[in-house]
Amino acid sequence: MRVAARDVKLGGGARGLVSHGAARGLAAVPPDPEQSGDVNSPDPVLRLQHASRHLGGRAVVRALDLTVERGEVLGLLGVNGAGKSTTLRMVAGVLAPSQGRVVIDGGDPYERPAIARRRIGYLPEVPPLHAELTPLEFLGFCARLRGLPRASITAAVERALERCGLGEVRRRPIAALSKGFRQRVGIAQAIVHEPALIVLDEPASGLDPVQALNLRELVRSLGATHAVVLSTHLLPDVAACCDRVAILHHGELRHLGSARPADASAWCVGVVQPLAASDWLALPMVEAAEALESHRWRVRLRDGTPVDAFARAVVERGFGLVALGPDAAPLESAFLAIAASGPAVHAA
């Protein structure tokens, strides 16, 4: 059944959507009398203090200590079953820790859950979109559910549309948008209320290389003004977007360190066409090229070359671009070593 657009006017009610939206994790919250914390505060936006979660009698996440500062993107990595999803749900305020604490912008989201949601923006792996609405209508609805004052909703929606590059599709039904644009709408609903913390679960899943590149740029821009937690299984996304990376294994934090590649000019490229090094060197922005395996190359760009210009050149030459990301070899080595290790032994 189509929901009437009149129910989601930017300044009006959302009576036709409230119960449906709440069922998708968009429960309405009252205005936050305290608002988010001081943007100049030295305290981290997110702090996990010895946070554990037990399910079925076993520790799914064990004694996790993490912080994320404003202006920082933290990448969360781990094999399936490592505890990423559980950690992300604790951080997003939807699953309370069995032990320890989660502190968001100075407050405990499980002591004051309604107010905490005002300070958290969450994009689950499957975005909670109303496909029959336009981005303009949907974001107006989300802003109201997040407790924004009526007078500020229009401006908040406009900011989210602009920041996520949705201006040209603002009045198109979400159902008619590409996967890349739908992901952008999902991110826009997570930031429309200007939360202190943004939590993104596999935002690049299913995107083509160009869409993924654009999404990385958006995540980096969000990380300049917010605290961002990005969960992904794509190591190039972590190397491209994140300041630090946390690797979980068997529910424990096994690695925490810089996500920046040692050589920022080196990129791993996947293509359809069989190529020689000379094909890459024919591109004016390429300094060196090394074959890693069939159809996969490590390419070093000349200083000052924008990666989007390189991507366009690869597409225009007809190489068949299928993957593009920073050279994540050191991160990949650390990840594979941890993934191959067994669980830690704990005293009974």
Structural description of this entry:
The structure is a single chain. The protein has 348 residues and is of the alpha/beta class. It folds into two domains: 5-258, 3-Layer(aba) Sandwich (Rossmann fold), CATH 3.40.50.300; 266-327, Alpha-Beta Plaits (2-Layer Sandwich), CATH 3.30.70. It has helices at 18-23, 84-91, 113-117, 135-145, 153-163, 179-191, 209-223, 235-241, 277-281, 307-316, 329-339, and strands at residues 46-55, 58-68, 72-77, 99-104, 120-123, 197-201, 227-231, 244-249, 252-258, 266-271, 286-293, 296-301, 321-326. A six-stranded mixed sheet has the order 5-6-7-3-8-9, with helices on both faces. A hairpin with a 2-residue loop joins strand 1 and strand 2 (58-68). Helix 4 packs across helix 5 (153-163) and helix 5 (153-163) packs across helix 6 (179-191). 42% of the residues are buried.
Question: Which features does this protein show?
Answer:
disordered N terminus, 348 residues, 4-stranded antiparallel β-sheet, 6-stranded mixed β-sheet, Rossmann fold, 13 strands, alpha/beta, Alpha-Beta Plaits
Please specify the SSE layout and strand pairing.
Layout lengths: L17 H6 L22 E10 L2 E11 L3 E6 L6 H8 L7 E6 L8 H5 L2 E4 L11 H11 L7 H11 L15 H13 L5 E5 L7 H15 L3 E5 L3 H7 L2 E6 L2 E7 L7 E6 L5 H5 L4 E8 L2 E6 L5 H10 L4 E6 L2 H11 L9
Parallel strand pairs: 3-7, 3-8, 5-6, 6-7
Antiparallel strand pairs: 1-2, 1-4, 8-9, 10-12, 10-13, 11-12
